[in-house]
Amino acid sequence: MSEFESIEHYLPETVKEIVGVIGLPATEKLIKAFGGFSFQFSNGKIYFDRLKEVLGQDDTVKLQAYMGAGEVYIPRCETALRMLRNQQIYTDYCQLTEQNGLSGRLAIMQLCQKYGVCDRIAWEAVRYFKRKQTSIQKTLF
């Protein structure tokens, strides 16, 4: 399952459309930069240049062509972004503990610094995805 498929049900329709146009990584950049803002998709220098700083020329042109010259509210998508972050914390935790041989506590310490979260949030993410993995494995057998 891709990152997008795992969080798709948390995303509003407009964001799903944007993902279809420029992809998930670029959409994530767009949301982080302009989430919670009604963005004017016009050929005007100010908005186009700000969008280009975040997405790059190619994705900006694609998105501009798709959106036209209208104003579109860019949702913040906090829940979806939090789920993506937590998923990445779990993936990194598994790599640090299973492949690099770190203890769980040392792995969490590194991840807290990397993601700017407290240890409770990091442990919560790890426990959530461990339970999810366990329940998936149980349904397979």
Describe this structure in words.
This protein is mainly alpha-helical and 141 residues long. It has 2 domains: 3-76, no CATH class; 80-140. The protein is built from 8 helices and 2 strands, in the order αααβααβααα. It has helices at residues 3-7, 13-22, 24-34, 45-55, 57-67, 78-99, 104-115, 119-140; strands at residues 37-40, 71-74. Strands 1-2 form a two-stranded antiparallel ribbon. The protein is elongated, with a radius of gyration of 18 Å. The relative contact order is 0.11. The model has no long low-confidence stretch (mean pLDDT 88).
Keywords for this entry:
two-stranded antiparallel ribbon, 8 helices, elongated, mainly alpha, 6% strand, 141 residues
What's this entry about, in short?
This protein has 141 residues and is mostly helical. It is built from eight helices and two strands; from the N terminus they run H-H-H-E-H-H-E-H-H-H.
